[in-house]
Amino acid sequence: MEARAAYEAAVEAWTARVLQVGPEQWAAPTPCTEWDVRALVNHVVGEDLWTGPLMRGATIAEVGDRFDGDLLGDQPRETALEAAREAVAAVAETLPSHGVVHLSYGDEQADEYVAQLTADHVVHAWDLAAATGSSTEFDADLTATVAAWFAGREEMYRSAGIIGPRAKAAGDDPWSMLLAASGRDARWAAAK
């Protein structure tokens, strides 16, 4: 799957799960034990808000702290959808130039940054779906694309502390393997 198409599919999977969050679910636990649903959505919204400036060449210092703290306000669902729309538009505008993005660890190719964003949206869409009881089924081509990309970066992510220990895979399919590689148990369910 081509990079831009994969990114757009991942963001679409994410926003579809955001739309399913009920008013009583914002404080529900997620597979990311340090985050409830609201904090998880806030994290991805922050990532989406960073996407435009970074894809357009801004540095971390230039962006500063404007995307710190609670970004969701009183309308978390609407805020998340708007941030996602802006990020998709920024990627569509800038990715064809295959430029450089200035990240916290140094300069990175825009294609690689978009692949990182794609993986984060897919995995966090699953986190959100598992937490709220929405569909945990994802497009097979998107899953295969993210799993293949992530396979070459799993240990780097783990050694940087971005993901936890590898979990036991629930199966040998690409989706179960991707979740396990990212430290998630496909059988996770919120305590009742």
Chart the SSEs and their pairings.
Layout: H1 3-18, H2 37-55, H3 60-63, H4 76-94, E1 100-103, E2 106-109, H5 110-132, H6 140-151, H7 154-159, H8 174-181
Antiparallel strand pairs: 1-2
Helix pairs in contact: 1-4, 1-5, 2-4, 2-5, 5-6, 6-8
Q: Quickly give the structural class.
A: mainly alpha
Number of helices: 8
Q: Care to count the β-strands?
A: 2
Percent range of helical residues: 55-70%
- The percent range for strand residues is under 5%
Question: How would you describe this structure to a colleague?
Answer:
- The chain has 192 residues and is mostly helical.
- Helices cover 56% and strands 4% of the residues.
- The protein is built from eight helices and two strands.
- The protein has a two-stranded antiparallel sheet.
- A hairpin with a 2-residue loop joins strand 1 (100-103) and strand 2.
- Helix 5 crosses helix 6 and helix 6 (140-151) crosses helix 8.
- The mean pLDDT is 93.
